[in-house]
Amino acid sequence: MNDAHHHTTDEKVLDEVAQRVLWLATRIIDAANRERDTGDGVKVGGHQASSASMVRAMTALYFAHLDAPDRVSVKPHASPVFHAIQYLLGNLDRSYLTRLREFGGLQSYPSRTKDPDVVDFSTGSVGLGPAAPLFAAATRRYVDAHFGARPASRFVALLGDAELDEGNIWEALADDATTGLGNVMWIVD
Fold first, then answer.
1. SS3 of residue 53 by DSSP
2. Distance between CA atoms of 44 and 155, rounded to whole angstroms?
3. Which of helix, strand or coil describes residue 73?
4. Cα separation of 189 and 7, whole Å?
5. pLDDT at 4 over 60
6. Cα separation of 119 and 140, whole Å?
7. How distant is the alpha carbon of residue 67 from its chain centre?
8. Using one digit for the tens of pLDDT, what is the confidence trace for 48-88?
9. In which band, very low, low, confident or very high, does the pLDDT at 7 lie, cut at 50, 70 and 90?
10. Where are the alpha helices (DSSP H) in the chain?
11. Residue 156 main-chain phi, psi, to 5 deg
12. N or C: which end of the chain has fewer CB within 10 A?
């Protein structure tokens, strides 16, 4: 991180926030599977391990490192962590915490059109999450060059290692439009 984006945050406080995020994300999944009547008794899922593995990185990003113009592509299976963080930040009403994978509720994968909280990138299609921030950054470079510089933005992709098997990711990295961006970071879980 450059000095313009350096934030001072107490590690102990971040650890406490991360524990709260982990608890909330786990509770979101538990409520969907154990308390909701699905009609047929089938559990709705929720990817607890894939969520838990992203808690510390996402807590650090959202509570200590991101600035308003930054954009994040959240690993699809970390959706409950994202929603827990948005709730703690005051961007999601508490009533949604018990509505994962419910019609009109929280989506199982981050969705710009279906989630009640603001999602920067829809990432339900495997491989879209890592590629979208690359092209968003390329578009931003174009806009800045042709219409005047906007506030500095960083584009972060949080992805699972299995997504690295998707060919479109490597095609996006090899595309001339994504060369030398300097404001994109991938965090591979």
1. coil
2. 31
3. strand
4. 23
5. no
6. 18
7. 14
8. 888 999 999 999 999 999 999 999 999 999 999 999 999 99
9. low
10. 11-30, 48-52, 55-60, 79-88, 128-147, 167-174
11. -115, 135
12. N
